[in-house]
Amino acid sequence: MPLGESMLLTLKNNKNLKRLRKKITRPFFGEIRKTESLYNFPEATPEILERIRLQMVIQNKEETIYYLISLVITLLLFLLVIV
Average pLDDT, stretch 50-68? Predict the structure, then answer.
């Protein structure tokens, strides 16, 4: 059943989030101490960010073309089965 599977997936994701939250401890009221860094991003210059943005644009275009081609092939196969 799709509903049961989605509920199990939600419970599993919640369990993973609880594990992530355990990395942040609260030894005293109001004090938050991180046991380890959650994010480790490198220093980025505007040139690097622009290159990353352009790569993402190109990647999105390639994915769109791939999905359109697969849709056309699927529709052609569907028409061949009907005829």
Answer: 94
